[in-house]
Amino acid sequence: MSLSDLASLGSFVSGFAVLISLIYLTLQVRQNTKHSRALIQQGRSIQSADFTNRWASDVDMVKQLLRGAVGDVTMDDVQTMRFLLMQYSSFYMWEDQFYQHREGLLDDERYSGMVGEMTERLRTVGYRSAWRMVRHGFGQQFGKFVDSLVGEIHAAGVGPTLPSMLWKAAVEEEQFGRSLRIPTGV
Q: How far are the Cα atoms of 68, 126, 162 from residue 78, in angstroms, in the given order?
């Protein structure tokens, strides 16, 4: 075997090693992407559970939420501010998920669920009014997105539905085995 043959063999082995390294690197990048998405989803789940548990554990917060959602104009300044702060929290959480989806970090299915939740809440005059008041604190693209949802929902003329109405309709459907139209909104 000549020196030229050994150089050719070395070049072949080197090229093969580079190919194996690229395959390994591709697999690592895919795994890291999956891991990042899983961490984001876990954070989203923890954030949502904490958010929900905090509201559910405080009867006054739930009362405030229900009064604000239906646009109760008899709320005083403290009650109004409390409702608006609760909505700021919701809108910040949704804004984060909106931008995560745009960056490819939140999949379409979870994004669709978030949009569905927003749509249900924005059916109420209270949430739409809160958005109008807090909108200035959010990114332009997210603002346009929420504005478009508000416009679509408002044009549909759908009013608020209290959770007790939703609950009763769902229970009757389960008890009587017939499909009843469950009203939307909260």
A: 12, 16, 23
